[in-house]
Amino acid sequence: MAFDPVQKILAVGTQSGALRLFGRPGVECYCQHESGAAVIQLQFLINEGALVSALADDSVHLWNLRQKRPAILHSLKFNRERITFCHLPFQSKWLYIGTERGNIHIVNVESFMLSGYVIMWNKAIELSSKAHPGPVVHISDNPMDEGKLIIGFESGIVVLWDLKSKKADYRYTYDEAIHSVAWHHEGKQFICSHSDGTLTIWNVRGQGKPIQTITPHGKEDGKKPESCKPILKVEYKTTRIGEPFIIFSGGLSYDTVGRRPCLTVMHGKSTAVLEMDYPIVDFLTLCETPYPNDFQEPYAVVVLLEKDLVVIDLAQNGYPIFENPYPLTIHESPVTCCEYFADCPVDLIPALYSVGSRQKRQGYSKKEWPISGGNWGQGIQSYPEIIITGHADGTVKFWDASAIMLQVLYKLKTAKIFDRNRSKEDKGSTEVPDEDPFAIQIMAWCPESRMLCVAGVSANVIIYRFSKLEVTTEVLLEVRMQYELNDIESPDGGGEQTSALPTPGASPQTSGPPSHPSTSSNNSDGGNIPCLKVRSTPLKQSPGYQVDLVVQLVWVSGEPPQQITSLALNSSYGLVVFGNSNGLAVVDYIQKTVVLNLGTVELYGSNDPYQRQPRSPRKTRQPSGGNKKREDGSQKEKHFILFSEHDSFFFCQNSSPHSSLVLVLNCALPLCFFLLTVLLSVCPPRGANPLDHRDNSFSRSRSSSVTSIDKEAREAISSFHFCETFARKGDSALTPCLYVGTSLGTVLVLALTLPPAGEQRQLQPVILSPAGMLVRLKGSILRMAFIDSTGSQLPSAYEPWYEPNVTADGEEREKVRKRRPVSVSPSTSQDLNESQYAVVCSEKQAKVIALPSQTCIYKHSITETSFILRADVVQMNQGMCVACFCANGHIMTLSVPGLRPLMDVNYLPLTDMRIARTFCFTNLGQAMYLCSPTEIQRITYSQDTCENLQEMLGELFTPVETPEAPNRGFFKGLFGGGAQSLDREELFGEVAAGRASRSLAQHIPGPGGIEGMKGAASGVVGDLARARIALDERGQKLGELEERTAAMMASADSFSKHAHEMMLKCKDKKWYQF
């Protein structure tokens, strides 16, 4: 890390060779070293708009920060020695570079040429040590005398080197290895940190022993304190009033096993130990002055952790941290899924921000964020963008992505509706062997109605409504639904046949899982318990997203429920649908009922393309233990117990002779469903991600003409789409439909019959009826969309957002409830004879089908050798297109409806399942994925965005006056003792020191000049930037010319003066006097 105290910019280097530059909130810049080697040290040229970086591959680079996209001006690659430490004094152009061999080389930062002046290790230590002193671990000049350089060697030797006389003035030896050294600002003392957890303070003129040895965390054990862990870095900062600060990392006692990494702040007699969440990589103390010879006045400490950046306020009691305004909390818990929405409703970001800003943030410093340099970019996207991330701990975060930098808007904790403390009795066979039982797996969001639905790894679906008002839910009402398999001859005698609809007269029961009649012995092992238990105590729900309904799949016969593979919601119809490898379930969240619970096999009806065995009600009966694997490793055929066809697939009637429905009602809303599905195939490993069922080798291929039962048993529901369209072939009327895509490439249609809006919507059931198969493709269905005859997308119907927790009287409440859902689909105003087109994309191909004739009019095979990981039908400025990300790293776009290839870029070879899991496209040419566990990478394939990008970038460098140097004072000026300056040019320049060996290091000019800008910028903005740089360079050259002219004039004046003096001297002399 490095900090420019005048510009107030922070630079962070990473293991992968990346540079992150941070200014004020909203100003951030990302750069990458081409070699990809780890950054080991950074040094700012303070207030110069430049930065020096040293890399693990022994190269040093100079970055120009005066342009919007920083670029390398010079590089120097060392060939024979390894770089271990760099130091650049304030307002100096000479960079000291220490090496592993113990030598110090000096580089001119302006020309990036090595000086012939070298400090050799043997000259530095002479006879003070018999062995090699080890690598250079520290270099710094005396704050009061630039001619004196302190050099710390790893073995424990410190040398005070006199640059002018080229010899060591003093040597200080200690038994323990040194990790870092820091000066007192008066230059009379320095402090060293050692590998045994001690700090030693030395007088510059004192020989032999340190004046003080401290073991801050060591326990006194008789004479000598016990040794501790190494103190990796120490800083020594003074204040005008009060005691100095000694700040260090590490140094804890060895017996503190399991203790978190700590930063210790010693101030006078008080010692504060600040625990960190992750290991400390580096820290810096931020001070008021850039001058090392003045009182430092520290006000904050920046601590770089492995996965976070923390800034501590030193001026407040208790050392609180500043609230971090950067989007660095993306991985506070690992990201498990994400979604990207461009062109959202304009009121959405303010609404999310208003509820997010009210979320309690206590214990932070009251002061402004101290890293405040740079200026914001002028441009901004003309449309709002939102990114939603789901995390392993069950949190969901909403981010404003409209500018270059993300800003967190709102954080939702989904885990708080579940009981975390499960009793021992509950655990038993339902113990979830998953470290993250609350992890988010899939998210469905309707930006217009603000309805949110999340599916977790524990086979649970939670539906949320957005509200600006706080509510407290008294008791969660559990509706436990259970389908039990019985013989027709012996119906379940113990279960009470009740009405399927919840009635107000249901008797309340005590909290806890209700007891259920069991018909087979395999239920005795906790067979119908969900993976997570919903809390029964009152739940206070803050403004923002509030739980409306929880649906859970439960364990069956000791088998965990299959994970949910697909999810969709429609706010106009009031339905949520989810599917897994066995089938799908449709939930009506307005009536709080399950409308449909159907196996994949039953979706086909009589149009089943597979050769499946016919089944009778008797055949579905499973004895206890019937879920065991066959000896040959395959599983028996799985079943869903479902409503029979003559029930028209709706929830109210319970006339199926072989299923009994048991309901236990507790009390008021919202409801929690426990949906039991009979699953007899083995569950994938817990915590598996939605795409993890794919081979990691990325070399599978699927055929669409599979006829074996084994293949059929794996047919999972892979995607859903709600739309108003022609349900059946030759239909003349538009009806609401649910389109279902499966992992074997089939698209099936379910027609919806919705009750009228208002009171009837609360009472009458929603009816779904299968309308047959639309089309079949190769590979799993990834995305479905509908367009009209003009090529415009037909969006799903939605209901506008309204406040669900209305506090007005009953009449107002009734008015809200009767509000008709608004369908924004333009198809309703079209002539009914006019066609629609369905766009379907699978892992291998895309097809466009004309409706209602159901004929395939366009077909395109996207890939033969690989397969598509993510496909989206997106809106561009000129029209629609299908955007695909392929497992071989290609990003492709196809025109709609013609499916002509528009773009094919070999962007990114897929090296990690994380990329496959998080890649998503959105409208207007934007896409994103997680490029590392902690970073979101946004990409664009839109020309408009590319042209606007230069304007959106912030300025890192702003012209600021360097503060005045500290006043020496009258007595120091009179008697000496102030800061001694040094003409380094005279010492290190080519004239005095000569040239360095050419084989030592190789100079590489960087692309940071005008040439680098040509590729970096495009369009008018780029031309302007180039013109501006050309003008700057011209101005610089004119300035240099002016300086040279002035120097020539001064020289001419001087010559004229000398000539005049000579003439006067010689004027009265005779010839013989010469």
UniProtKB/TrEMBL annotation:
This is Syntaxin-binding protein 5-like. Its main location: membrane. PROSITE patterns: V_SNARE, WD_REPEATS_2. The keyword Repeat applies. SUPFAM superfamilies: SNARE fusion complex, WD40 repeat-like. The gene is STXBP5. Signal peptide: none annotated. It comes from the Eukaryota. Keywords: Cell membrane, Coiled coil, Cytoplasm, Exocytosis, Membrane, Phosphoprotein, Protein transport, Repeat, Transport, WD repeat. InterPro entries: Lethal2_giant (IPR000664), Lgl_C_dom (IPR013905), LLGL2 (IPR013577), V_SNARE_CC (IPR042855), WD40/YVTN_repeat-like_dom_sf (IPR015943), WD40_repeat_dom_sf (IPR036322), WD40_rpt (IPR001680). One of its GO terms (biological process) is protein transport. GO terms for cellular component: plasma membrane; SNARE complex. It is a peripheral membrane protein. It is found in: Cell membrane; Cytoplasm. One of its GO terms (molecular function) is syntaxin binding. The keyword Flavoprotein does not apply. Residues 507-524 have a biased composition (Low complexity). Residues 1009-1069 form the V-SNARE coiled-coil homology domain. Belongs to the WD repeat L(2)GL family. WD repeats lie at residues 171-205. Residues 487-535, 606-635, 809-829 are annotated as: Disordered. It comes from Oreochromis niloticus. It holds the Pfam family LLGL.
